[in-house]
């Protein structure tokens, strides 16, 4: 359907320690679409990522993911929905005391598969992201970039419909970023994977087709294509200041 959405936020507010951290945020994402949420530190990008993943609840407003309203879900229903979501969060979430392979198998622990089948699934996604040979390593032995890619592999192993990646460029050099964008582009094209990425840099997704949402002080100043953003930058002093990092 032309109006199909995998993600829809309307009138979302979030209060944190008595201050307004997100104010009247409205966003939509279609199957296979990429949305980059950009803005300075403290703009609310990480808060937004956590809300979309159902890790936190908004103070007000509605968040629908894959046609289901998050505020109507709790317990088992919310956990079931999260199986169709992949998340890569800043700060890391790998278990330090177990190997890369064991970390990757965690999202598959409910699958009635043999140990060999599970290991093959993990190695397939590791090969996809050029992580071969790291399966027996502990996370503390990895570089930051490798850790981020292992977290991405774990997020992708269940073939989610929506991937939320907070701090897209963190730890990745330019070649790794380009290779990763190529992998995600293929998954979007062939599986309809939708991507919501956050980053301080509005140009981080390069030439890949995507929309951009600009946050500042918890407000969404702009939503549109990269070309539309360039045009809006010329006419909005506030938007220009935010993108220049002076706000």
TrEMBL record:
Residues 7-242 form the ABC transporter domain. GO terms for cellular component: plasma membrane. InterPro entries: AAA+_ATPase, ABC_transporter-like_ATP-bd, ABC_transporter-like_CS, ABC_transpr_LolD-like, P-loop_NTPase. Pfam families: ABC_tran (PF00005). Keywords: ATP-binding, Nucleotide-binding. GO terms for molecular function: ATP binding; ATP hydrolysis activity; transmembrane transporter activity. PROSITE patterns: ABC_TRANSPORTER_1 (PS00211), ABC_TRANSPORTER_2 (PS50893). This is ATP-binding cassette domain-containing protein.
